Amino acid sequence: MSTPKTIRWGILATGGIAKTFTKDLLVDPQTRGVTNVKHTVVAAASSSSQSRAQDFLKDTGCPADAKAYGSYEELVKDPNIDIIYIATPHSHHYQNAMLCLEAGKNVLCEKAFTVNAAQAKALAEKAKEKDLFLMEAVWTRYFPLSIYVRDLITSGRIGPVVRVTADNGFATDPEEAFGDGKHRLVNPDLAGGALLDLGIYSLTWVFQTLYHTQPEKTRQPPKVLAAVKNYSQTKAADETTTIMLVFPRSPEDGGDAHAVATTSIRVTTTPGGTHDAPSIRISGPKGEIQVFPPAFRPTRTKLILNDGTVEEKHWPHPGPGKGSGWYNGFGNGKNAEGEGHGMFWEADEAATALLEGRKEGKYEGLAESILIMEVMDEVRKQGGLVYPEKIETTKYPTEL
Ligand SMILES: NC(=O)c1ccc[n+]([C@@H]2O[C@H](COP(=O)([O-])OP(=O)(O)OC[C@H]3O[C@@H](n4cnc5c(N)ncnc54)[C@H](OP(=O)(O)O)[C@@H]3O)[C@@H](O)[C@H]2O)c1
């Protein structure tokens, strides 16, 4: 067995998901059977102060010699970084990713990739021009659970998929929780709303089951019909969005396939956190695959065939294990002791791509990220959801 290659990460932003990602990144990859790569963090940057970056490095358990920067501009100049993980609000992804690419850095950028498809295209072009790796951090695509579901589909166990329904939502009272309108979930200046933040997962499930599983040469973009309800307090940032999609397919492959992707910040698939109903249902003529909530981090699937076969599977997230005293989680949610959050699989893929000289993610290339942004553009157009010009622009640099 060859020695694992260590990939040196820089972390751009110090908020909630940056913490979760970084903690996962530092878990020994062997705990999940990965032996080709290892990860280390060599630097982190905060846009507000160097001390915030310093605290971040300490809180996440980064190596003592990791550098703390008080600006993103300093971070991208660090010659010891192989790849930068961007974890700012999606309003800022375009400007931040362009900063990294211009400086010659490979990039893993949080979802939603950008505010619109024009920005996503401009980033893809810049990465190509600079011969750099660029990937949208849709972590769910890289879970073993997702690989299993896609394999089930392509193996034909349920026949050609006829319909997919996918839901992702939070049961919050936005007036109560985000009353001042500043939180990134409802703030138009931060590209807030259900669609870009949560609906991206409903669309991820629709695309990874109905689009990604089709042959690359013949698959076609879907037709889209959408209903958008904007959040009344901020007059933009959708609170509930429903999307109907039709994926063209040849008659031999089953003909057109339908999907309904739903998302909301006011209602959820299973109120009370019971997780007792599937958030994703993938239906074919021979049966159905069910994926249980939350859609972004599922751990349970059920295959139900018309002949009565039921195969239920649990997909634990490995980590240092019980007795390790190590915890991860997101926001107020804490995982069980020693249980990883599941963000390391996308990091492993990004690192492996660097090793192999690939410039895009294996389970969602840039063309697919751009196509999903195009679908979200169309949804926003149909629903009259417009963000401020400064975050929609492709002009770089733009002060935000
Ligand atoms: N994959 C997932 O499961 C997941 C989960 C949650 C969020 N996300 C995505 O990750 C991104 C960040 O989400 P988050 O929940 O981590 O947000 P957050 O807690 O608000 O953190 C965002 C960070 O971005 C930096 N930032 C720079 N300019 C900012 C501005 N004008 N306003 C606010 N923050 C600014 C701040 O760090 P410094 O200034 O210190 O650098 C801030 O702490 C979003 O795109 C979101 O969709 C992904």
Automatic annotation (TrEMBL):
<keyword id="KW-0560">Oxidoreductase</keyword>
<dbReference type="Pfam" id="PF22725">
    <property type="entry name" value="GFO_IDH_MocA_C3"/>
</dbReference>
<comment type="similarity">
    <text>Belongs to the Gfo/Idh/MocA family.</text>
</comment>
<feature type="domain" description="GFO/IDH/MocA-like oxidoreductase">
    <location>
        <begin position="149"/>
        <end position="289"/>
    </location>
</feature>
<dbReference type="InterPro" id="IPR000683">
    <property type="entry name" value="Gfo/Idh/MocA-like_OxRdtase_N"/>
</dbReference>
<protein>
    <recommendedName>
        <fullName>D-xylose 1-dehydrogenase (NADP(+), D-xylono-1,5-lactone-forming)</fullName>
        <ecNumber>1.1.1.179</ecNumber>
    </recommendedName>
</protein>
<dbReference type="GO" id="GO:0000166">
    <property type="term" value="F:nucleotide binding"/>
</dbReference>
<dbReference type="Pfam" id="PF01408">
    <property type="entry name" value="GFO_IDH_MocA"/>
</dbReference>
<feature type="domain" description="Gfo/Idh/MocA-like oxidoreductase N-terminal">
    <location>
        <begin position="8"/>
        <end position="135"/>
    </location>
</feature>
<dbReference type="GO" id="GO:0047837">
    <property type="term" value="F:D-xylose 1-dehydrogenase (NADP+) activity"/>
</dbReference>
<dbReference type="InterPro" id="IPR036291">
    <property type="entry name" value="NAD(P)-bd_dom_sf"/>
</dbReference>
<dbReference type="InterPro" id="IPR050984">
    <property type="entry name" value="Gfo/Idh/MocA_domain"/>
</dbReference>
<dbReference type="InterPro" id="IPR055170">
    <property type="entry name" value="GFO_IDH_MocA-like_dom"/>
</dbReference>
